[in-house]
Write a structure and sequence with these properties.
Blueprint: H1 2-31, E1 63-68, E2 72-75, E3 78-82, H2 99-105, E4 112-117, H3 123-135, E5 140-145, E6 156-160, E7 163-167, H4 185-189, H5 192-199, E8 219-227, E9 230-238, H6 262-271, E10 277-283, H7 293-302, E11 308-312, H8 319-329, E12 338-343
Parallel strand pairs: 1-4, 4-5, 7-12, 8-11, 11-12
Antiparallel strand pairs: 1-2, 2-3, 5-6, 8-9, 9-10
Helix pairs in contact: 2-3, 5-7
Length: 344
Amino acid sequence: MRRSRIAGPSLLACSCFALALSCTALSACGGDKDAAKPPSGPIVGVLELPISLRVSTAAPTDFADVEISPSEIHVGGQPVLTLNAGVVAAADRQGSDVPKLSAALKTPLRSRIALSVSSSVPYETVALALSTAKQAGFRGAAFKVRPPGANSTTPGWFIIDDFLVHARSKPDEEVPFQSIAPRPWSDFTARWDDIQNACRGSQTGSCAYKPEKIAEGGNLKIVLHTAGQGVNVDFSRVGAPAAAEEPKKKQKVELLDGVKGATDIVKDVEDAPPADTASFQFRAQEAVTQPSAVSATLKPLCATVACAVVVSSEKATLFVRIASLLGAAFPDNAPAPTVAFELP
C-alpha cells in the first residue's frame, strides 16, 4: 500500500515533464511562425523563358537566385514581393530601388545575380531589379533562357560579367563604361559597307546606306532598342568636339526642261551635314531566326572583340524582346558584351 501511494504521483510528474518537453520540441521545430520556410519550387517554367541565340554558357555559380513571374518575385526560393501583371507597385519602390528586394539580396550578399524571368514580364520590372542589384553591390548578371526550335525545353544561360543601369541617355550622349575602353567611331565607319550588306540579308531589314560625307572623330555608341514588333541596332558618334561650321559653297546647277525642283534635290544633298548616326531596323522575328540578320549586322564589329552596348526600351515592352535581341546581337561563340540597361 505504501508503495502504491508513492508511485502514483511520481508517474504523473514524469508524464507531465515528458509532455512539456514534447510541446517545447514541437514549438521549436514547427510552431515558430518566423522559422525559415523551405524553398518553393520554380515559379517560372521552362517554356515561359525567353528564346535566345546565346544559350551555351555554363550554369552560373555563387549567384543570387532571383525569379520574376507576372505575380511575384522570389529570391532563393522565398517570396519577396507581389506584382500586379508583372509591375512593381509604386509603394514598393523608391526611385530605381526596390527595398524589399534589396534586403533579400543582401542575405548573403553575392557579386552576381541570376535571373529567371517570365517572357511576359515588362522591361521596367527587370530594369528595376537590375538597378536594385547594382545599388546593392552586384556586378554581373545572368539570364536564364532557352534556344529556338527542337531543343527549346533545354534551358541555358546568357551571362554578362559587367552591367550598368542608368537613366535614359540622348542619342549623342556618351555612356561611361568603366570596365571597357571606348571604341572610336571609325571602327564602325570602316565597316559600314560590310554591316550594310549583312543587314540586306534580311527580308524585313531597313538598312542605313553609307553616304559620301561621314563625320570624323569621336567614339562609337551602340544602342539596341525595341519597340512593338520592331528591333533596332543603332550606331552613333559621341564625344567629339563640335566642329566649326564651314561656309556653304554655291554651285550653279543647270535645269533640264520640264524638271522642276532639281536644284532643291541637289542642294539638299550638298548641304546635308556629315553622317554621324546609322540605324538598322528589323522585325522582332529576326532576333530568334537562325541564321539571324541581327547577328550578321553586328558580326563585323563584335565577333572577335567585346562590345559595350546600351539597351533601351519602353516600360511596357515585354522582357522577351530585350532578351532575344541581346541573344541575337551576341550569339553563342561571340564575346560576352558589357551592357548598360537604361531605365524607361
